[in-house]
Amino acid sequence: MDGVVAQDVITDIPPVSAKDAERTGYKTQKPVRLLERIIRASSDEGDLVFDPFCGCATTIEAAHQLNRRWIGVDIAIHAIKRITANRLHERLNLTAGTHFTIEGVPRNVEGAKDLWNRDKYQFQKWAVEQVDGFVTTKRTADGGIDGRLYYALPGATSLDSMAMEVKGGRNVSIQDVRSLRGVLERDEAAMAGLIVLEPLGERKTRNFKQEMAMAGDLEVFKTAYPRMQLLTVAEILEGKRFRTPSVAKIGGRLPLPM
């Protein structure tokens, strides 16, 4: 056939710029047009497109627009949440449970326990992001500070934070609470939150909250916020969140220190 043989270097489709509506913030994000060209060249309508590292789901969007069936997989739960909110719901008007299903993301306590057993780091990330926190980039075997929840105080020029620690095992002790309280005493955060997977029991819960109460309150406009707070995974799944002043949520454009 006349013409130029297809090359493996494409120069007529520009990369995603900061001004593009499809930009999600992924450093390696590809243009939808690029994936559409690849999918058109390698499949027919109704074929199944599988992306085992789907990231921000450019391949999924392109496959859906071209009437292909699709499966996307990613190791990071926050990526799955971003895909669901930004790509599938906002851009494609698709609804979970009706147009697609999500597997591997906890939707109940049993699912959270399964994630803990499979990958403790991913469980920590999931728990932090469930309460609108930002995951710390440093991975530590003993938990440490697993994330921070940022909030703005009236008149402040920078954001304050709640340091969060996630515990999934059955051996959470009062020493863990005292260790987290030390974060406040070292002025690393104005508040601290502890997330636990396993139920603590009435006595341990009472002891934990008594120890946390000794850290005092943060008062903002005559509203008292406990400087140390406790949440269980069951409470988080029911919709309960840490009490702080206005929260800077994931997806915002605030310049947050990480």
Describe the overall structure.
The protein is an alpha/beta fold. The longest helix is centred in the first third of the chain and has 15 residues, at 77-91. Helices cover 33% and strands 16% of the residues. Helix 1 (32-42) crosses helix 2. The strands form three sheets. The protein has a five-stranded mixed beta sheet with strand order 3-4-5-6-9, sandwiched between helices. It contains eight helices and nine strands. It is elongated, with a radius of gyration of 22 Å. Mean pLDDT is 86; it is low at 250-258.
Write the layout of secondary structure elements.
Layout: H1 32-42, E1 48-51, H2 58-65, E2 69-72, H3 77-91, H4 109-118, H5 120-130, E3 134-135, E4 147-151, E5 160-167, H6 174-185, E6 191-196, H7 202-213, E7 217-220, E8 223-226, E9 228-232, H8 233-237
Brief account:
This protein is of the alpha/beta class and 258 residues long. The protein has helices spanning 32-42, 58-65, 77-91, 109-118, 120-130, 174-185, 202-213, 233-237, and strands at 48-51, 69-72, 134-135, 147-151, 160-167, 191-196, 217-220, 223-226, 228-232.
Backbone structural class:
alpha/beta
Mean pLDDT: 86
The helix count comes to 8
Biggest sheet strand line-up: 3-4-5-6-9
Distance between the termini: 55 Å
Largest sheet: 5 strands, mixed
Any idea what the radius of gyration is? 22 Å
- Compressed to H and E, one letter per element, the order equals HEHEHHHEEEHEHEEEH
The tally of beta strands, per DSSP, is: 9
Q: Uncertain spans, ≥5 residues at pLDDT below 50?
A: 250-258
Strand content bin: 15-25%
